[in-house]
Amino acid sequence: MTSNTTIKFGTDGWRAIIAGEYTFANLERVAQAYAAFVKGESDANESIVIGYDRRFMSENFAHRVAQIMHGNDITTHLFSTDVPTPLVSWAVKELGAAGGVMITASHNPPHFNGFKIKAAFGGSAPPETTRAVESLLDKSEIRRGDFPQPEFGEDEPQLAGATQTYRRAIENYVDLERLKAMNARIVIDPMHGSGGLWVESFLQGGRLQTETIRAKRDPLFGGINPEPIDQNIRPAKDAVINSQALVALLTDGDADRVGAVNELGETMTMHEVVPLILLHLARNRRMTGGVVRTFSQSVLMTRLASKLNLKLYDTPIGFKYIADLMMRDDILIGAEESGGIGVKNHIPERDGILNSLLFLEAIAHAGKPPSEMVKDMHKEFGEFYFGRIDLHFEVARGQALVARLAAQTPAQVAGYEVAEVSTMDGTKLIFDDESWLLFRQSGTEPALRVYAEATSKQKMHELLEAGRAMTG
Prior knowledge:
Elements: E1 14-17, H1 24-40, E2 47-52, H2 58-71, E3 75-78, H3 85-94, E4 99-103, E5 112-119, H4 127-135, H5 157-173, H6 176-180, E6 185-189, H7 198-201, E7 209-212, H8 234-243, E8 247-251, E9 258-261, E10 267-268, H9 270-284, E11 290-294, H10 299-307, E12 312-315, H11 319-328, E13 331-335, E14 341-343, H12 352-366, H13 370-381, E15 385-392, H14 395-407, E16 412-413, E17 416-422, E18 427-431, E19 436-441, E20 447-454, H15 457-470
């Protein structure tokens, strides 16, 4: 019953290297622990929804999880094709299931895969759930049943119905007729992930011209990480320039995150996209509610919330914290720096499909290209520019560095005096003009992330490079 591999859930799920720690044997251990958790919830409907992304062997891993669930006498709903993570979360809620499993490593490198747990409310499982599952590892014999693998593209009626209600929910949320009527050309880039042709499918039949690139499955994601950040999205930037597109809309490997490229072929950070969506929701759609800002999100979110008279919440990094607030309070928007955005009147979940369309709706309302929208926002709320570098650090080494910077904080960085230190999630050095530099060890992969936001691009780059030097 025991294994030498220690399994820990990170920021969002358990992730590991395929054929290293991510093996069928270890997957069975995790699935059995989750099955025991579901069986232990006395008032739970013992049914589970299982989905998977386009990574290597994801469909086989998902089928093995289904076999374990079935072996534990849990009603099992397994998608027949790769699907976006938000669809799995939607289906969990729609079917009244006890929870869900998404086989994905999201934005991690191609040689990773993972196991995300979705809660009955249709969002990321809270920390107490993942801790409970961890505590049940190797506590019961693995029970594997004979569960047939569905024919590709032939979902059972319950899942097919959930897919249709998910589509209708997006159609009702976004003004698709206005988007289709735009006299513009846009690029859509799912980065070979399970976003596929989803965004394009909502925009057909009007004047708007769409071009979807990197839509086919590639388990190697073209040799990059399927994360819509600058170093990974050259094809989208080139496509915008070559086709003179208004914008490129991107989703990550499992389509729960969003990214964008402006009409100049420049990567837009989430410190630009998220505040613009917030402004659109509050001013154009006249929606109200709280604003949730994770620890690496923008200073602009604070300024916007103040001017719009919306309550601001600060949380550690991880969408599970946003989902928890969305369940308890009236939240308009909650967002991560990494592109995970949750909005009011939808499931408490990141949804790259919905938010791609919602950002396009913001552009349509503005009647101007994204770069001009950012300039207008900076003119009203102040200029802030964001950057991030990822360094390969083993977890223990990165955690030690972060702890040392908190305990022995430098008085100055790049010639700028440190005014304040915050350790909510990592170590953040804050300067007197609200610029900041954050060091944080990833909870999902061996990566130390160094983030900076500053009042000029030059200062942002100076802080980032100084941060890099401090890790040596």
